[in-house]
Structures are given as C-alpha cells and as structure tokens.
Amino acid sequence: MTIRTVETTPYSDQKPGTSGLRKSVKAFQQPHYLENFVQSIFDSVGVAGQTLVLGGDGRYYNRQAIQIILKMAAANGVARVKVGQGGILSTPATSCVIRKYGTLGGIILSASHNPGGPDGDFGIKYNTNNGGPAPEKVTEDLYARSQTITEYKILEAADLDLDRVGDRTLGEMAVEIFDSAQDYQELLESLFDFDRIHQLLTNGSFRMVMDSMHAVTGPYAHAMFEGRLGAPAGTVMNGTPLEDFGQGHPDPNLVYAHDLVDILFGEDAPDFGAASDGDGDRNMILGSQFFVTPSDSLAVLAANATLVPGYKDGLAGIARSMPTSAAADRVAESLGIDCYETPTGWKFFGNLLDAGKATLCGEESFGTGSNHVREKDGLWAVLFWLNILAVRQQSVEQIVQEHWQQFGRNYYSRHDYEGVESDRANTLITHLRGALPTLKGKVMNGYEVDYADDFSYTDPVDGSTSQKQGVRIGFTDGSRVVFRLSGTGTQGATLRVYLESYEANAAKHDHDPQQALKPLIDIAESVASIRSNTGMDQPTVIT
Ligand code: G16
C-alpha cells in the first residue's frame, strides 16, 4: 500500500466554533475539505506512534469520513485507532473510552443537534487526552495550521469493514473495532443504583419513555433501559439511528422533541420522559405534564446527589455556564461548596473537573454532566433522575416543587432567533455593546440595572482568559437578560436571548415563565431592538 501526498490549498472557513467545526454536508464534500482539517489536527497535536479513538453520531457522511480519516491516520504514522462498531460512538462514550484507555485523544464526527442528511450538517471535533473538547489553545493552533496547509497524506487502500468487532490492520496501523456501548455502560453502572432503578422500571406502575430522536443513543438506550433495566419493549422511541434522523431535528427541546412532549403532556401521560440529541450529550427531562428546565435540572441533581451511589460522599463544587440560571448557585451556597460561572461551551469545564474543583456541571442548552467523563452526558442525566425518582418515590413535579419551596424559583427562558442574517445579528450585538456604559443605574420596567457588561472569564486553574462571551444586563434583584450569538449554527446567525428572574416566595410560584418574565422580555426588546434588527416578530424557538 502506498502513501500518497496530496497538494492542497487552505479553506478560510475552518475556524472551530463552540464545539468543533460544523458545516453543511456539502461544505465537507468539497475537494480536500475534510482532509485539510484532519491533517491540521494531526499536524498540530502530533499523532505519530499514538492511539486515537474515532466514531460519530451516525449521520450522513459518517462512514465515508471514517474511512478517509483511517487512511489518513495510517499515512501519518498513528499506531492504533479504536473505532466504535459501525462507526457509531456517542460523544460521552468517546470521552469515556479516551479516558479509560489513556489515548492521546479522539475524533468525534457530529454536528450534534443540527439536522443531518445530504442537505443537513456535518461536523468534526477533536477531544484531548482528558476526554474533553480541545481547549481554545488547541483549536487556535489547529485553525492556524489549517490556514497554511499545503499538503496532506493518505494511504491508498481499500475501505475497512467497520461493522464486525475485532482487530484489523491498515498499512502499519492497528485498527480495533469495538463494541460502542460496553465501556460506557460499565462506567454508568459504577455510578448508579441499577438494581433500584430496575425495581422502579418493573414495579408495574411507573412508566417512562425515552426518545432517542433516531440518533446515536438508540442502541445504548435499548440495551440499557429495555435490556439491563427491564423496562418493557417500546420504552425507547425513535431508537434506530438514521442518517437523516428521520428528517427530524435531533435537538431535545420542547419544539423539536414534539413527539415526546405530546406524550408527556397528553392524556394518561407516563411518569417520566427524556430525550437526547444527535450525539447523545444533551438531555431533556419531563415529568407527567411537567417540563424541567435544564437549569433547574442541574440544581435538583446537585441537591439530591448524595442519594446516588457515585456521588454519595457529596460534591466538590458545581459549575455552570454564564447564561445558565443561578438555581444551582443557591444549592451550592446551602451545601457550602463553590459554584463556578464559565463561558458557554463544555470545554470550559475541563480544567475545573481535572483539578477536582467541580463534580457536577450544567448548561441551559440541555447539557448536564459530571467528572465521570469530560463531556456532557445525556443518558447519565436520565439515569441520575431515575435514581433519584427510585429513592424518593415522588413524581418529577413533586421533586421540583419541593426544590422551589426550599431554594426559591429561578424563572428562566431562552428565546432563539434562528437564521438571522449574520450582518444584522452582528450589528445588534455591536450596538448593544456600545450602549452598555449608559445602562448602569438605569431603571426600566421597575428593574434597576446593577451591571451591564460583556462577560469575560479567567480560568481559575490555568489563568487563561476568554473575552466577549455574552452581553449581560443584571438587575439589582438578581434578574438578568443575556444576549449571545450561537457558536453552533451553520446558516446565518442565531441570536439567543436568555431571561431569568428569581422568586423566593413559594406562594407565587404558579406563574407561567413567559408571563413571569414578561417585563424582562420587554426590556430585552427595548435595549436591543430585536424586532427591527432581526426582521423577526417573534423567536423561532422558546424554551
Ligand atoms: C455545544 C457545546 C455546549 C454549548 C452549546 C452552545 O453543544 O458543546 O457546551 O452549550 O454548544 O451552543 P450555542 O453556541 O449554539 O449556544 P453541542 O451539543 O452542540 O455540542
């Protein structure tokens, strides 16, 4: 087999976003596009003689990309690649395998919750040897490399069979096709009380539905819930991964997971519902007729962590992204532990987890996780909730209501304006930034501005800084409005407006969040002129 050196020229748009490089499938199918980025990873991290993990969420182009990457890895002197069977590996399972086997890192092929198929999106991200997303320093290096690339190396060889578990070779490189679920399930079994969850799921009265949205968690969820944990067949819906996710949008929120929402808010609703996204790192939690916001979910998990075997000794600390509500902060305060506020993006939790400063992490964007891996973990969150339900023997709603009684309620909502023209979205943010100095002390709708800034972060472990991570307007009563442009979209820009207010008095808790947040929604419009700047009358998604 010969190694071919192929001449190439850079693509200017290969700067990784919040979570790797995400583009349309068509962009990735341009000549040398994928190859350039992969060679840039290899050059910047140095892969000769190393072991890598490789897999993806099974979306369209996954298999072709894996064959290309394997041949490039062989040509670049990689010693061994561990590939999930069929090329399938969820993001948290990849993190687990990197950590368990101490590999140099891993490559995950996914555009997460973005739609798939020939007209959908594709993505690639590199995770480092702690199992987590590459930190900014690494992504900057590989982007710089992608901008000067002149050639890449690839082995001329036949495609490998990815579907049979076992060892193969490609040139001099070892390729190990492994069972995508085994290591990951073992890890989860070491954290949760599977016997107790088994009892709950087989007690004849408790009913749950897991919506895998035709994405990567299907096989894991079938094996875990219907296999190991004894739930009846049919518990997992949309459990067969499809290259186009059944033409759906595998984003577990109230809009895109509507099949599940209809069931949980319908007649004779089951007790518990959950969904996860394209690559299995996000989760949505529902009770019968009840939605748990991701911010509340983090707070509830933290408050109940000692009920779960893996966390029975308590938490070292909690970390949340800046736009996530402060519900978890109140739990941290009552537990006497630290709560860290980081920029959006799971990579910012890595150092805190590695340094043992945080045990649980969460984001408003339906991400929750812990120090068991270095990614957010959808099925982990579902099991955590099931473990709590099994111990407390209460409904999801009762647990959350009691939580609000104890800690007060952080009303929370995110309004997304998707597909905004990039120039218009940038103008909106630039104007807002310009207005920040004039806002302090101003009273709007009865809310007095306490601070108005663009969030910047200094990592408490390595001192690295990240600027311009979201425009925040905080009010004296703790309420907030935050504006950010998404770092994960592929078409135009997505404006996210995050709204939060706090109500300590449990007697006032039966508000609809949109109603409770109405004064802040109006303030957001008045300071940012969202309608005229975006040309949209209302958000495309409200969660
Ligand atoms: C990615 C990151 C998350 C982050 C989210 C934000 O999620 O992994 O840590 O919260 O993006 O997205 P945006 O920049 O669009 O607000 P995922 O699930 O897409 O990998």
Low-confidence stretches: none
Report how far the terminal alpha carbons are from each other: 53 Å
Helix amount, in percent? 25-40%
Bound molecules: 1,6-di-O-phosphono-alpha-D-glucopyranose
Can you tell me the CATH topology of the largest domain? Alpha-D-Glucose-1,6-Bisphosphate, Chain A, domain 3
Biggest β-sheet: strands ordered side by side in the sheet? 2-6-5-3-4-9-8
CATH class of the largest domain: Alpha Beta
Number of strands: 27
Q: What's the shape?
A: globular
Classified in CATH, the superfamily of the largest domain is Alpha-D-Glucose-1,6-Bisphosphate, subunit A, domain 3
Largest sheet: number of strands, sense, barrel closure: 7 strands, mixed
Distinct helical segment count: 18
Assess the beta-strand content as a share of residues. Answer: 25-35%
Q: Taking Cα atoms only, what radius of gyration do you get, to the nearest Å? A: 23 Å
Return the CATH architecture of the largest domain.
3-Layer(aba) Sandwich
Q: Tell me the quaternary state.
A: single chain
Structural class: alpha/beta
